[in-house]
Design brief:
About 20% of the residues lie in helices and about 20% in strands. It is an alpha+beta fold and about 110 residues long. It has one domain: HIT-like (HIT family, subunit A, 2-Layer Sandwich), CATH 3.30.428.10. A five-stranded antiparallel beta sheet has the order 1-2-3-5-4, with helices on one face. Strand 2 and strand 3 form a beta hairpin. The chain is globular and about 35 Å long. The chain starts with a helix and ends in an 11-residue tail after the last strand. Bound molecules: guanosine-5'-monophosphate (5GP). Guanosine-5'-monophosphate binds next to strand 2.
Length: about 110
Amino acid sequence: MERTIFHRIIAHELPADIVYEDGDVVAFKDIRPKAPTHLLFVPKQYVASIAELTPETAHIPGMLILKAKEFATAHRIDGYKLVYHVGRGGGQEIYYLHLHFLSQEKMVEEGAKN
Ligand code: 5GP
C-alpha cells in the first residue's frame, strides 16, 4: 500500500495546521478551504475510504463525527456541514478516510475563548 499525504501529516512528517489531536484522530485545516472553517478529521487507524469499510472498521466514521461535534462545541461553532467523499465519482482525491468539517462560522481559536 502506498502511503498518502494524510499518512505523512498524522505522522508529523509533513507540516499541517493541526487544530486537534488525540489517540484516535488528527484534525487539521484544509489547505484549500471551501468555507471560513474547513477542517479534515482523519483517524489514526488507516481505512482508504467509506467504500472499504468492514464490520471491524464501521465504527470509525461515527467516531470522527463525534470528535467533530465535540470540537464544534469547544470552539463555539453552532452550525456546520459534515461530508464524506466516496470514490472518484464522489470527489475523493485522497484515499485515506477523512471527514470534511465545513462552517460559515469562524472557529474560536484556543486562548481566545473568553
Ligand atoms: P477529498 O477530495 O479526498 O475528500 O479531500 C481531500 C482534501 O484534502 C481536499 O479538500 C484538499 O484541499 C485537501 N488537501 C490535499 N492535500 C493537502 C495537504 O497537503 N494539506 C492539507 N492540509 N490539506 C490537503
